[in-house]
Design brief:
Layout lengths: L11 H16 L12 E6 L5 H12 L3 E5 L13 H8 L5 E6 L4 H7 L5 E6 L5 H15 L5 E6 L6 H10 L5 E6 L8 H9 L5 E4 L2 H4 L5 E4 L10 H7 L7 H4 L7 E3 L20 H23 L2
Parallel strand pairs: 1-2, 1-3, 3-4, 5-6, 5-8, 6-7, 8-9
Bound molecules: N-carbamoyl-L-aspartate.
Length: about 300
Amino acid sequence: MRHLMNPLDLTVEEISEILDLANDMEVNPKKYAHSCDGLKLATLFYEPSTRTRLSFEAAMLNLGGSVLGFSSADSSSAAKGESVSDTIRVISGYADICAMRHPKEGAPLVASMKSSIPVINAGDGGHQHPTQTLTDLLTIRSLKGRLDNLTIGLCGDLKFGRTVHSLIDSMIRYPNIKFLLISPEELRVPSYIREDVLKKHHIPFKEVVRLEEALPELDLLYMTRVQKERFFNEEDYVRMKDFYILDKSKMKLARPDMLVLHPLPRVNEISVEVDEDPRAAYFKQAQYGVYVRMALILTLLKWKNQ
Ligand code: NCD
């Protein structure tokens, strides 16, 4: 049995198989409509979510399975002081697979050690978000036709944005990837990403403050929201929150085939006028999130039964 804590828990070949399966699920949904008949997914969400939780639920329903769970710590026994280890021991007897989101880094990992069902990390604090990364990879591969030879701009909150950390970790495994890291000074990537991931693997990258400077070079722009809930004080958040706003005039600086991705939710960092631009792919990306989670659930359940 395997869990998914970090995108690197999967090999490049395994990721490619999951993405192939997800593409097939998009085209032939009927073929998979009963793949999980009689099986249950538990969604244990100790932190708010719309897309991740609902796309997990939609994924399991599309496979013919059922879902149970909670969507906030207040509505679970965590509010009474129950540990994630105890919760998962109990849930292991109620469901066949589980997705967990938690504000504390490493909480899903702790749960996986006590679990007798596969645990999927659906976001742990500012750390990792592997299923968002699978979504991003499926979007890039489907719309760009490749995962190699890309210049990728990551813009916004690169310090607290877990989707950014997971995406960098994953993309460096493909040939000829370059990064432009676009953020205010205070929201630059954590030093472990700069030193232990980028520099250690000799990945070309540049840290810049101005989006306008980076835009003309990019094959792909990954925008992110400033992660309000991870700030220690409101003042810093207010100062940072509108640092970047991608609008029509900035899009003129970009290549005609540059993709704009965003894990969503968006706050102000992409103005709604960009939504009509054919390069805006973030709503399509959210749809891919369902297919890739279907493929992941089916794959983990298959490995569990091997
Ligand atoms: C992201 C997350 O939860 O980290 N959202 C998501 O899962 N699509 C991004 C964010 O909250 O900014």
